[in-house]
Amino acid sequence: MPPAQKKLFIKTFGCQMNVYDSNRMADALAPHGYEQTQDMVEADLVLLNTCHIREKASEKVFSELGRMKKLQDLRKSEGKSTMIGVAGCVAQAEGDEIIARAPVVDLVFGPQSYHRLPQLVAKAGNERVIDTEFPEEDKFDHLPAADKKIIAARGLSAFLTVQEGCDKFCAFCVVPYTRGSEVSRSVAQILSEANDLAAAGVREITLLGQNVNAYHGQNSSGNEVGLGALLFEMAKIDGLDRLRYTTSHPNDMSEELLIAHRDLPQLMPYLHLPVQSGSDRILAAMNRKHTAKSYLQIIEKIRQNRPDIAISGDFIVGFPGESDEDFNDTLALVKEVGYASAYSFKYSPRPGTPGASLKDQIAPDVANERLQTLQALIKHHQNEFNQSCKGKTLSVLLEKPGRQPGQVAGRSPYLQAVHVDAPASMIGSIIEIEVKSVGPNSLYGQLITN
Ligand code: SAH
Ligand code: SF4
Ligand code: F3S
């Protein structure tokens, strides 16, 4: 007899890896009778998949738990019970605190315990449970594959984690503590998952890792291979037309990866390569182990291999000790690279990281002003890049109905959102369009008819 149907609601915060993990958690619970819902009120089990990267992200968990209490009370008044679980990086970093501060929470578990979720949920029916160990076994060996129909319902573009954790220990960053040290999945395991995705109709896969280009998984001969070799294998999969990967560290852009950018038409010409600062003094204080110049040299090499590549990045302003001069170096680097897009953040001191105990923390108003200046410059470059696409022919993976009736929305190779006049029946195809106009956040294009 199939198990009784129960409803599962997952709210995801943070990075793409959390999006991927949330799907895997749903896949782990599906054989135990849990069906995912988008409506929190009907959920028997609510999971918050959390992010610890900045203070604001972390705080969201506790405000969300306040709302959960109300939800639980409302359902209780209707005679229904609601189990609440906290997963992800806040669970890993502050598990004990969550249990102590939030009586509403039944279950706390870290990113390396997701394969144990069915057992943890069963146990949490009787007592409050916390599981934030880094287990011996590899969770990916135990997580069940998703059902074909469920994969198809998730869309044409999918994430696939190939590497997790980080050994770099940038002075500002919690990831090495919340996700643990670097672990790469085997090539066979990744290809098997990618084949399942492609067989269910997925046309684009983004390989994920906190430090994805440090990937060093075993191939079938027992040899370690890098991300470049993995991409060459992925490119052989039928039906997979587009490949991407994120997030990379500048020091791990290997020759083979550059060759993949040169030789694989499936590998999209878009690279997210965070640099964080343009000042060598600050880069050293951040323990980034690269300089502004070495970063620019890497960008130049990538462009030699793939001249049309769009570069994206991450920046932190207001790291301890950052002077006006240091900040100006960041602005100069942004101008030199000419980013197609970039994300910038105000430094947030995180407990347990070396940056938090540094002297010369920057006053919030100074950091705010720098952030505004940097964001204006980034926006200018983003706009310039988008404008440069006007009149060009781009291929677009049509993914969903567009904003206007008669329109379909998709993504360009450069990850820009594109709206196209086309019938909904074309969703799922990759088509050539001519870019007719450019808005602040998206392009508008028309089908090329010969
Ligand atoms: N693994 C990736 C990104 C990790 S987190 C990498 O190595 O680049 C994503 C981004 O958040 C980082 O690139 C950084 O710009 C930002 N970030 C990380 N810790 C932060 C902190 N303490 N304060 C502000 N921004 C931070
Ligand atoms: Fe964090 Fe990325 Fe640095 Fe690793 S490389 S410590 S994930 S910013
Ligand atoms: Fe956040 Fe953890 Fe991702 S801290 S950015 S959810 S790895």
Task: Describe the protein in words.
This protein has 450 residues and is an alpha/beta fold. The protein has four domains: 6-131, Methylthiotransferase, N-terminal domain (Rossmann fold), CATH 3.40.50; 145-268, Transcription Regulator spoIIAA (2-Layer Sandwich), CATH 3.30.750; 269-388, Transcription Regulator spoIIAA, CATH 3.30.750.200; 393-447, Nucleic acid-binding proteins (OB fold (Dihydrolipoamide Acetyltransferase, E2P), Beta Barrel), CATH 2.40.50. The chain contains 14 helices and 21 strands. It has helices at residues 16-29, 55-77, 88-101, 117-124, 139-142, 148-154, 175-178, 187-199, 227-234, 255-263, 280-285, 292-305, 324-337, 364-388; strands spanning 6-12, 34-36, 45-50, 83-87, 107-109, 129-131, 157-161, 163-164, 183-184, 204-208, 217-218, 224-225, 242-246, 270-272, 310-317, 341-346, 393-401, 407-411, 417-421, 430-438, 442-447. The strands form six sheets. A six-stranded parallel β-sheet has the order 2-1-3-4-5-6, sandwiched between helices. A five-stranded mixed β-barrel has the order 17-18-19-21-20. A hairpin with a 3-residue loop joins strand 20 and strand 21 (442-447). Bound molecules: S-adenosyl-L-homocysteine (SAH), iron/sulfur cluster (SF4) and FE3-S4 cluster. Residues 14-15, 17-18, 51-53, 88-89, 174-175, 178-179, 210 line the site of FE3-S4 cluster.
